[in-house]
């Protein structure tokens, strides 16, 4: 395989920059900062967690609803980059503004977080859809995996810098408060994200599009309605989305519950951050490896491998007892977390009609967002019924098995084969 082109590298570098938001704002620093702020303001731990959950639900629902609509409009010539830019600016500016919200105003903090999250996830919708513009079907697996690999590596740099500043502040090595250190982390995230997005703006262009027509918004709604009515024409594509809904739900649930597992086993916050960091480092080369193996064995077969690894993870988690077990579990997740996400994106990219890529990636976004509901609910109900939280985790095997079975019904697209032909098989 020849070297990555300038467009492919520029596209992948956005993952390098944007992933700082995922780890610092979504996963590590902001949740801790917000919880401390809410507690200081007299909000109970359960209430503050509930408010954060409501906030996540709000922006998830908003984006899931508007994703296909905006995506359909963005399929017109020149519109994809405009929508991407608008969400990118919303995300980076709101992230930076988190640094200036008074530490005792937890409500304003959450409002700002909603806009930051909308910007980040909205920009990712159009970023994912750009994959059809920057590369060929034959190279999609490698390019998508390259992006995820860069994301895992790139996110560790601002993460280490931010955590170092916070720890040095906590130990009074730096003459600043922990609050100020956390605010600096938010600014680092925004600047890192913005700087490494510049190649995307300079070198990536929308190659596939629909010619502009009168009343584009009205016409977009008509096209969206037509797609939904003629869903049978895209049988392969929507079968894949159903499979994706189930197995990515399991992946997301494992990620979201991992910290709780570690805490239950007695890992300190510092040790949990170390595990998170090592997981990011290990996930990077494995994401790229998945892409290379997909070129040799096909993307679908490597998705099978990833799903089977997660089934093993669920079974192993059922017997989790020691900190060593948790490390083994985390490393197992690291081997397939990036690969399964990267190949899902490229597989879907091969199935979609290129001129309508934004519209269909809007549906991809909906299935991914609403998938985040089923898994945690399944774990909660199973744990309550059985009285055993380990059974709740084990129940996730159901999601992966359903995803595996449905995926087996989806034809593997081949280069240069029209999606309509694939869909009709």
Furnish the topology, listing elements before pairings:
Blueprint: H1 6-40, H2 45-74, H3 79-97, H4 106-129, H5 131-134, H6 140-170, H7 178-195, H8 198-203, H9 216-229, H10 235-264, H11 269-297, H12 299-318, H13 323-351, H14 357-386, H15 389-394, H16 397-407, H17 419-424
Helix pairs in contact: 1-2, 1-4, 1-6, 1-7, 2-3, 2-4, 2-9, 2-14, 3-4, 3-7, 4-14, 6-7, 6-11, 6-13, 10-13, 10-14, 10-16, 11-12, 11-13, 12-13, 12-16
Describe this structure in words.
Keywords: Membrane, Transmembrane, Transmembrane helix, Transport. The chain crosses the membrane at residues 12-34, 54-76, 83-101, 107-127, 148-169, 181-201, 236-257, 269-290, 302-320, 360-383, 389-407. This is MFS transporter. Pfam families: ATG22 (PF11700). By secondary structure, the chain is mainly alpha-helical. The protein is built from 17 helices and no strands. Helix 1 packs antiparallel against helix 7 and helix 3 packs antiparallel against helix 7.
The best one-word shape is globular
Helix content: over 70%
Q: Find the structural class using helix and strand composition.
A: mainly alpha
Helix run count: 17
What's the CATH first level?
Answer: Mainly Alpha
How many discrete structural domains?
1
Highlighted features:
425 residues; mainly alpha; Growth Hormone, Chain: A; 0% strand; globular; disordered C terminus
Summarize the entry for a quick read.
Its main location: membrane. The protein has 17 helices and no strands.
């Amino acid at each position: 395989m020849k070297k990555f082109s300038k467009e492919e590298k520029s596209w992948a570098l956005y993952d390098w920059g944007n992933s700082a938001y995922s780890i610092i704002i979504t996963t590590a620093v902001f949740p801790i900062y917000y919880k401390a702020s809410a507690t200081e303001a007299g909000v109970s731990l359960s209430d503050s967690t509930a408010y954060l959950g409501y906030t996540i639900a709000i922006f998830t629902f908003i984006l899931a609803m508007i994703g296909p609509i905006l995506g359909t409009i963005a399929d017109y010539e020149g519109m994809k980059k405009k929508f991407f830019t608008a969400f990118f600016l919303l995300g980076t500016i709101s992230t930076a503004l988190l640094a200036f919200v008074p530490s005792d105003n937890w409500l304003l903090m959450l409002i700002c977080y909603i806009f930051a999250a909308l910007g980040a996830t909205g920009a990712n919708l159009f970023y994912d859809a750009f994959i059809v513009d920057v590369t060929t079907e034959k190279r999609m697996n490698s390019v998508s995996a390259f992006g995820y690999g860069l994301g895992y590596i790139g996110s560790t740099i601002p993460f280490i810098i931010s955590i170092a500043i916070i720890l040095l502040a906590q130990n009074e090595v730096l003459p600043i408060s922990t609050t100020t250190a956390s605010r600096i982390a938010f600014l680092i995230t925004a600047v890192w994200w913005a700087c490494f997005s510049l190649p995307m703006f300079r070198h990536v262009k929308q190659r596939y599009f629909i010619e502009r027509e009168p009343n584009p918004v009205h016409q977009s709604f008509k096209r969206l309605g037509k797609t939904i009515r003629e869903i049978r024409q895209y049988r392969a594509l929507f079968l894949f989305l159903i499979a994706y809904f189930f197995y990515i739900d399991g992946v997301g649930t494992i990620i979201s519950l991992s910290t709780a597992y570690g805490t239950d086993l007695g890992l300190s916050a510092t040790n949990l951050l170390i595990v998170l960091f090592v997981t990011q480092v290990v996930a990077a080369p494995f994401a790229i490896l998945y892409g290379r193996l997909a070129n040799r064995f096909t993307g679908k077969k490597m998705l099978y491998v990833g799903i089977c690894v997660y089934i093993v993870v669920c079974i192993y988690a059922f017997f989790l007892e020691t900190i060593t077990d948790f490390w083994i579990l985390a490393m197992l997740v690291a081997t397939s977390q990036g690969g399964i996400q990267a190949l899902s994106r490229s597989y879907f990219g091969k199935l979609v009609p290129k001129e309508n890529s934004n519209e269909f990636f809007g549906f991809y976004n909906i299935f991914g967002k609403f998938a985040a509901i089923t898994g945690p609910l399944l774990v909660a109900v199973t744990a309550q019924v059985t009285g055993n939280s380990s059974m709740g985790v084990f129940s996730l095997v159901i999601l992966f098995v359903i995803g595996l079975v449905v995926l087996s019904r989806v034809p593997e697209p081949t280069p240069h084969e029209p999606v309509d032909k694939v869909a009709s098989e």
